[in-house]
Design goal:
- The chain has about 500 residues and is an alpha/beta fold.
- The protein is about 40% helix and about 20% strand.
- The chain is built from 15 helices and 20 strands.
- The strands form 5 sheets. The chain has a 7-stranded mixed beta sheet with strand order 14-15-16-13-12-17-18, sandwiched between helices. A 6-stranded mixed beta sheet has the order 9-8-7-10-11-19, sandwiched between helices. The chain has a 3-stranded antiparallel beta sheet with strand order 5-6-20.
- Strand 12, helix 10 and strand 13 (about 300-305) form a beta-alpha-beta unit.
- Helix 3 (about 75-90) packs across helix 7 (about 195-205) and helix 4 (about 95-105) crosses helix 5.
- Bound molecules: nicotinamide-adenine-dinucleotide.
- Nicotinamide-adenine-dinucleotide binds next to helix 8 and helix 9.
Length: about 500
């Protein structure tokens, strides 16, 4: 097997095994550890200490104490620290990209070009928003001399999934910290490395002890301790709909507001007048990005009958040309699936879809020979059939999409909307007026035109239905969501 040399600093970081977790400005360990697995080779990268309920309780206590002063800092002070953190992320971009690549399995170019720099930009964006916000808004009322004061909540808890550990963490914590909250973060225990490295940079940037705390741990142990602690004042969860529903229930009992960013089954509608080459390229790129482990990707492709055959043959050629390989190999266009469990789930979904009548146009299996057979790889897969198939409607979370032929544009919008989720859809047509009409009719947090997976700071990314509630990320509204509103009034 080809060997890859990590940079000295990346190597030194993973050598410090078991990795400790970070709270109250100090590094702590527990007796329980977990192996962190490289999905490209199924080998152990390092071990990580798993935080226990008492660690989580202590971390929340330190975040509560730190809030007393952090919550009163000037926005410019918080912005300065966030910008410093962004600078350190950019300085260590090669290390962070390597960690993300070996931990998640993603091509190093994706980590270098998207995950890490886009996260740095997030801290800068919310630094600017914090400085540019009016925290006392005079109401100009007749009977009272009154204003609205915008105040941080206090301790904000975060639980993240394994697919984009670094970027999703930034999307969550940057607005919370910028608004003056303190944070306790539980990354997924499958992919904790870049978040632990971020904790090192948070320490180096000079955030006061207790302001930001990072504790990997099992969902059923550390996760439960975090979500059920009545001292948390705001909960932010990114992950599956099933776990999100549970977290919503637990927080509901404590009357803690919960922001839930959950799963999806995005639809793409390729109209008769679409630029077929652009649609094939755009949708394939969106689906195969991060090996399809993207909540907002389109994995139901409704293609008009007049362009269906052309579209399918071009998409098949594209999928079959994708070079699978280790993330650290710069030639790889798609890496392995992040975990063995997820790979096994994808295999099962494809088998069930076939049993339910779907045709496998290409892919549908894992490579069983050579180097790739040692990792958790899965071939880019095109299924075709009827949208009554369970796996045309349920999230698979892998490089698998379902092709569905349609003939009537009005009817297809209704069919696309029959799905339980509501995260992100796209419409592909050269008629922009029609595109806008369809984009508005699709029920989701995000409707994209002639593109899929569109992100820019300032552009709100949210969800509806079973894809989540209570928030969204990446915009000024997200920042405002981390501030509670208090009315201050005196009778005139
Ligand atoms: P998951 O729900 O299984 O786990 C997410 C996190 O929750 C992990 O850190 C896990 O340890 C923790 N957890 C599990 N049980 C818990 C409990 N009882 N209490 C507290 N924490 C608990 O999701 P996953 O498999 O890691 O990620 C994949 C899912 O995430 C997909 O459904 C995907 O669509 C979704 N996702 C959504 C978004 C979004 O922005 N909407 C982004 C990325 C991923």
């Amino acid at each position: 097997m080809k060997t890859y040399t990590l940079q000295d600093q990346t190597h030194a970081f993973i050598e410090a095994s078991p990795q400790k977790f970070y709270f109250n400005g100090e590094w702590h360990a527990s007796e329980k550890t977990i192996d962190v697995i490289d999905p490209a080779t199924a080998s152990v990268i390092t071990q990580v200490s798993l935080s226990q309920p008492e660690d989580v309780a202590n971390a929340i206590g330190s975040a509560e104490s730190a809030f007393k002063s952090w919550g009163k800092t000037e926005p410019s002070e918080r912005a300065g620290l966030l910008r410093k953190l962004a600078e350190l992320i950019r300085r260590d971009l090669p290390i962070l990209a390597e960690l993300e690549s070996i931990d998640v399995g993603k091509p190093i170019g994706e980590a270098e070009g998207f995950d890490i720099p886009f996260a740095a930009e997030c801290f800068e964006y919310f630094a600017g928003v914090a400085e540019d916000t009016e925290y006392e808004v005079d109401l100009g009322l007749e009977l009272t001399d009154s204003h609205t004061a915008k105040i941080p909540y206090g301790v904000s808890a975060f639980v993240f999934p394994w697919n984009f550990p670094f970027c999703l963490c930034a999307w969550g914590i940057a607005p919370a910290l910028a608004a003056g909250n303190t944070i306790v973060v539980k990354p997924a225990s499958e992919t904790p490395l870049s978040t632990l490295y971020l904790a090192k940079l948070i320490e180096e940037a000079g955030f006061p002890a207790g302001v930001a705390n990072v504790l990997p741990g099992a969902g059923s142990v550390a996760g439960e301790a975090l979500i059920s602690d009545p001292r948390i004042k705001l909960m932010s969860f990114t992950g599956s709909t099933e776990v999100g529903r549970h977290i919503g229930e637990v927080c509901g009992r404590n009357l803690v507001p919960a922001k839930l960013e959950l799963g999806g089954k995005g639809a793409a509608i390729v109209c008769s007048d679409a630029d077929v080459d652009a649609a094939v390229e755009g949708l394939s790129g969106a689906l195969l990005f991060n090996a399809g482990q993207v909540c907002c990707t389109a994995s139901r492709w409704y293609v008009h009958e007049s362009v269906y055959d052309e579209f399918v043959s071009k998409a098949k050629a594209h999928f079959e040309s994708i070079k699978l390989g280790r993330g650290l190999d710069t030639d790889s266009q798609m890496g392995p699936i992040c975990t063995q469990k997820q790979m096994a789930k994808i295999l099962e979904c494809v088998a069930e879809a076939q049993a339910d009548g779907a045709e496998v146009i290409c892919g549908g299996k894992r490579p069983m020979t050579g180097e790739l057979s040692q990792g958790f790889y899965f071939e880019p897969t095109l299924l075709a059939g009827d949208d009554s198939n369970k796996w045309a409607q349920e999230e698979i979370f892998g490089p698998v999409t379902f092709l569905i032929k349609f003939s009537d544009e009005e009817e297809v919008v209704e069919r696309a909307n029959r799905n339980q989720y509501g995260l992100a859809n796209s419409v592909w047509t050269q008629d922009l007026a029609k595109a806008k009409t369809i984009a508005h009719e699709l029920v989701s947090g995000n409707s994209w035109i002639n593109a899929h997976n569109v992100f820019e700071y300032g552009l709100h990314y949210g969800a509806c239905n079973q894809s989540g509630c209570g928030g969204g990320v990446n915009s000024r509204a997200t920042f405002e969501g981390y501030l509670r509103q208090m009315s201050v009034a005196a009778r005139r």
